[in-house]
Design goal:
The chain is of the alpha/beta class and about 110 residues long. It has one domain: 2-enoyl-CoA Hydratase, Chain A, domain 1. It is built from 2 helices and 5 strands. The strands form 2 sheets. A 3-stranded parallel sheet has the order 1-2-5, sandwiched between helices. A hairpin with a 6-residue loop joins β3 and β4. The two termini are about 35 Å apart.
């Protein structure tokens, strides 16, 4: 049973960049994998694996370990994924990813 009466049918774009990491990477790759959104932007943070942390009893420090390798549904390891709508950043004076996203949305809604 669906939790919604109607499925959202409008285009979905996920904007990503070099500071998109962890769950943001998983979210973007997952939406593309289930064909519910298009990813636009540069390479992401390229985290190689899922990380879990823990601390030592009676200590003020801890540790973090890689615990699971993550993949796109097509088999591409997360750290090698490049957005389908890749944007080669050439300046910091404007948001080229946002501009590309707006261009794509306009084409999809024509």
């Amino acid at each position: 049973m669906s939790s919604r009466k109607e499925r959202y049918k409008n285009p979905v774009l996920i904007l990503v960049g070099r500071w998109t990491g962890s769950m943001g990477e998983e979210f973007a790759i997952g939406f593309e994998g289930i064909e519910r959104g298009q990813v636009v932007g540069t390479e992401m943070e390229r985290l190689a694996e899922e990380i879990h942390g823990s601390s030592f009893k009676h200590q003020s420090f801890g540790f973090r370990l890689s615990t699971a390798k993550l993949f796109h549904i097509n088999g591409t390891p997360r750290e090698r994924y490049v957005p389908t709508n890749y944007v080669k950043q050439t300046t910091i004076k404007k948001d080229e990813t946002l501009e590309k996203g707006i261009e794509l949305i306009n084409k999809m809604t024509e």
